[in-house]
Amino acid sequence: MIDLTILLDGRSEDPLYTQLYQYIKTEILSGKLAAQTRLPSIRALSSHLHISRNTVDLAYQQLIAEGYVQSRPRSGLYVIDLELETLSSSYSSSMNMPKASVQERSAIQYDFRYGDVDAEHFPFSTWRKLSNQSLQMNQQMLVSYGDPIGELGLRNEIANYLHGSRGVNSSPDQIIIGAGIQYLLGIVAGLLGAAINSIAMEEPGYDGARTIFQHNGLPVHPIPLDEDGLNIQKLYESKSRIVYITPSHQFPHGMVMPLAKRMQLLKWAADMNGIIIEDDYDSEFRYVGKPIPSLQGMDTHQRTVYLGTFSKCLLPSLRTAYMVLPPALLELHKKHNYRLYDQTVSQLQQKTLELFMSNGHWEAHIRKMRKVYRQKQMTLISTIKKLMGNQATIIGQDAGLHILLRVHNGMDELELIQTAEKVGVRVYPVSPFWTHPTQAERSMVQIGFGGLSNEDIITGVHALHHAWFNNY
């Protein structure tokens, strides 16, 4: 139930109930009162607006009569889904097209969205148990704002994990926790802002990062890719002193930057007195070759900001990410009073995650999810190769939770997406990852597989093959 705050004019020629009815009707038609929203009770609204119950009752009766709301016994008044009602009335009289068919034909059954994860294997019972344990440990602590950079216990766990898994060298004091990579990138952009003329980024690259930099007034200089990642020579030529990069799994093309090129990039930072922003967003999921240490762990000059997230291994809805600041930027963080920013991740969630890591559940979960996602990736790739053969080229299959697919059927990006939707499958564009979308490859789409079952992946690819190659 919601509150309705309305300015009613007692001097108007329109009665108060008419004014109230017109207001609610307008809110419904504009979408501000969504379908299935419960309206306040007659008693509650009359008390809130200081008007008689009869006035509210008359307005509600008019809304019911005109079909904007419906009364549910012992429950209340609810806004009707006008869009669904329109479909129903349009098609209910047709014997050849029942009203459900329109929704069925337009429904997306297989959504290959990158960023979706496998919720089926998330240890909800363990998380619930640890969350309850956190509530019982120190209730006074959990109702306070907490440490602005994150709770020390969780920062200790993250530091230990990163050192063992990614070779990151840091103390807990260098780690800052925040609600997502983009929030943390906003802090980095603020720290660097006045000191730089532009920021270099991979082209194509993560559009979420590009937007954060642009919103903070930082011009973005796109740097083209080689087969093994960022073109270092073009980076030198750009004269930028800051570079944002995804070396462990380039987004979106998926290549893994080899050790030799990582050394070249670190040399660039030393030569240019520059800063590397290393986004290690899904480094846990590498399927080919030996793991390569993070740039931060190889950086003897301490010029690398390291970013990571729990969104891919756990759940995006947890909104928990972290960054490791080099000493120079950590001093700027203190100097410019960034500790006045309140922590954006709840203490309860931080404490639960700390217990999840300290009790060994985190690493066990990663090991399990590597197998789960590896199987899904193999299912996706093998099905594409079996059905499409040389009619499609798979790009970026060595790591991560998505691939790019270059389709050789003459369709452009938009046509591929729209044709797929006609058979209930959603795939995604690649052009937004380019600074200038018109320069993107014409016939390429992004396919994520984390949120689908193996069976749905197979069925979804069969539907794509039918849509793209059988003159659907």
Short description:
This protein is α/β, with parallel strands linked by helices and 472 residues long. It contains 18 helices and 16 strands.
Note the main attributes of this structure.
single chain; 472 residues; alpha/beta; Arc Repressor Mutant, subunit A; Aspartate Aminotransferase, domain 1; Aspartate Aminotransferase, domain 2; eight-stranded mixed β-sheet; four-stranded antiparallel β-sheet; 18 helices; 16 strands; 14% strand
Given the helix and strand composition, which structural class is it? alpha/beta
Helix % is 40-55%
Quick one: how many beta strands?
16
CATH class of the largest domain: Alpha Beta
**Stretches with pLDDT under 50, minimum 5 residues:** 85-106
Largest sheet: 8 strands, mixed
What do we call the CATH topology of the largest domain?
Answer: Aspartate Aminotransferase, domain 2
**Percentage beta strand:** 5-15%
CATH architecture descriptor name of the largest domain: 3-Layer(aba) Sandwich
| Shape designation | globular
Number of helices: 18
This entry's quaternary arrangement is: single chain
Q: Kindly, what is the distance between the CA atoms of the first and last residues, rounded to a whole number of angstroms?
A: 46 Å
CATH superfamily of the largest domain, please?
Type I PLP-dependent aspartate aminotransferase-like (Major domain)
Pfam families: Aminotran_1_2 (PF00155), GntR (PF00392)
Cofactor: pyridoxal 5'-phosphate
InterPro entries: Aminotransferase_I/II_large, HTH_trans_reg/aminotransferase, PyrdxlP-dep_Trfase, PyrdxlP-dep_Trfase_major, Tscrpt_reg_HTH_GntR, WH-like_DNA-bd_sf, WH_DNA-bd_sf
GO molecular function: transaminase activity
